[in-house]
Amino acid sequence: MPKRCKWCNIKKEDYITYHDKEWGKLNLEERYLFEMLILESFQAGLSWECILNKRKDFKIVYDNFDIDKVSNYKEEKINELLTNKNIIRNKRKIIASINNAQIFKKIQKEYTSFHNYLKTFTNDKVIYEVDKTTNKLSDTISKDLMKKGMKFVGSTIIYSYLQAIGIIYSHDKDCFLYKNKGEKK
């Protein structure tokens, strides 16, 4: 069995699949950017494994992360989410997810896409680094998103988000997927 990042639970097939096939792979598709932002914000104070175990259920109850639907959730939907034992039932995070969806849409409108917004900070470059939980980029994006009104988007959450969507490539040095800038694997 190939060596993987230390955070990857090799006893769980879906965790291995996420690590090997998704995490750190550049994916700038708008629905994916939104999904990962919502999931990462729910991770605050929890493990990624906890979120990954509930991802399929999140997808169902969050209407496949349809931003138009999520941004229009009202009290009835909030109550439905709060009683669903298959997801994280934190009222502050649920309300923040709806608020963040509304702000995400405003950003899309202003920049024509969330990817274009991220490009203003990244210049479409991938950062290769390991063993960090924040950096100047995550600090800057976090501050800007908070200024725009988003919640649960601290620098550590945004750093994890950037890793998940592949803007920060962080496979451990002894992981079979590790590579430096310019290396092909």
Ordered list of secondary-structure elements with their pairings:
Blueprint: H1 13-21, H2 30-43, H3 48-61, H4 67-70, H5 75-82, H6 91-111, H7 114-122, E1 127-128, H8 136-147, H9 155-164, E2 168-169
Parallel strand pairs: 1-2
Describe the structure in your own words.
With 185 residues, the chain is mainly alpha-helical. It is built from nine helices and two strands, in the order αααααααβααβ. A two-stranded parallel ribbon has the order 1-2. The longest helix is centred in the middle third of the chain and has 21 residues, at 91-111. The radius of gyration is 16 Å and the shape is globular.
Enumerate the spans where pLDDT stays under 50 for 5 or more consecutive residues.
Answer: none
Query: What is the N-to-C succession of helices and strands?
Result: HHHHHHHEHHE
Give average pLDDT, whole number.
96
Calculate the terminal CA-CA distance, rounded to whole Å.
17 Å
Number of distinct beta strands = 2
What is the CA-atom radius of gyration, in angstroms? 16 Å
Largest sheet: number of strands, sense, barrel closure: 2 strands, parallel
Our count of helices gives: 9
Which class best fits the helix and strand makeup? mainly alpha
Helix share, percent: 40-55%
